[in-house]
Amino acid sequence: MKHLGEHAIVIGASMGGLLAARALADFYTTVTVLERDAFPAADTARKGVPQGRHAHGLLARGSAVLEAFFPGYNAEVVAQGGGLIGDVANDVIWIGRNVRLASGKSDLGGLLASRPVLEGHLRRRLFALPNVCAIEHCSVRGLVADSAGTSVTGVRACVGGKPEETIHGDLVIDATGRGSSSYLRLSADAEAGNAP
User: Fold this and answer.
1) What is the pLDDT of residues 127-182, one digit of tens each?
2) Cα–Cα distance between 85 and 87 in angstroms, integer?
3) CB 142 within 8 A of CB 182
4) Would you say 147 and 77 are in contact if contact means Cβ atoms under 8 Å apart?
5) Which listed site, 53, 106, 137, 154, has its alpha carbon 20 to 30 Å from 188?
6) How far apart are CA 122 and CA 12, in angstroms?
7) CATH fold of 1-39+136-196, please?
8) Where are the alpha helices (DSSP H) in the chain?
9) Distance (Å, rounded) from C-alpha 137 to C-alpha 36?
10) Cβ(66)–Cβ(42) under 8 Å?
11) How far apart are CA 144 and CA 156, in angstroms?
């Protein structure tokens, strides 16, 4: 595979951030995942995860992607008592316009599990990769750019309550969701004359 750079940074360790880190691991020497919370020891809900206590299901494509990234993932979740595998067209009741739709056998296999179980298994498999690491209790304060303000070159972050530091990277992905303010923080810095 093509080597794209030395260091990629992913902000946020929910499902989107973990999967982004896994995709980047094939192309960057090191991938660092920055998470503001601490990872739970068991597969329990995390405070910063919306709908974390709701039942979740991976439809066929999502299940296949996780299986391609981490062979045996689906069977591992089921074997440890955390999920069920089923045919999403035959084993699930679908209702449209208040009418129950007909079921039928298909090759669309999905995985049903809680969000903490899906995320916990994914996190353990991801951080077992030799070039992926995580920094917990890491509060990202803003993005860092080159002197021209045309390329993001890292993040400003506080780790574990320590003074702010810069973590440099060739690529930064913000996977913190719709509440993200990294763009606004970069724009505010630029407007204040603090353009990195």
Assistant:
1) 999 999 999 999 998 899 888 888 899 999 999 989 999 999 999 999 987 667 66
2) 7
3) yes
4) no
5) 137
6) 14
7) FAD/NAD(P)-binding domain (3.50.50)
8) 15-24, 60-69, 73-79, 115-127, 182-191
9) 4
10) no
11) 7
**Residue 129: both structure tokens together:** 């990769």
Q: How far apart are the first and last CA of the chain?
A: 32
Q: Which of 38, 43, 39 is nearest to 83 (CA)?
A: 43
CA 21/CA 152 separation, integer angstroms:
18
Annotate 139-189 with DSSP letters as a single string: EEEEEEE-TTSSSEEEEEEEETTPPPEEEE-SEEEE-S-TT--HHHHHHHH
As a whole number of angstroms, the distance between CA 12 and CA 78 comes to 26
Looking at residue 94, the DSSP 8-state letter turns out to be: -
Q: What is the pTM assigned to this prediction?
A: 0.82
Pick left, alpha or beta for residue 72 (phi over 0 → left; psi -120 to 50 → alpha; otherwise beta): left
Angle, helices 15-24 vs 60-69, to 10°: value is 50
Cα–Cα distance measured from residue 66 to residue 6, given in angstroms and rounded to the nearest whole number: 25
Domain locations in the chain as residue ranges: 1-39+136-196, 53-131
Angle between helices 115-127 and 15-24 (to 10 degrees): 20
Q: Give the chain's mean pLDDT.
A: 86
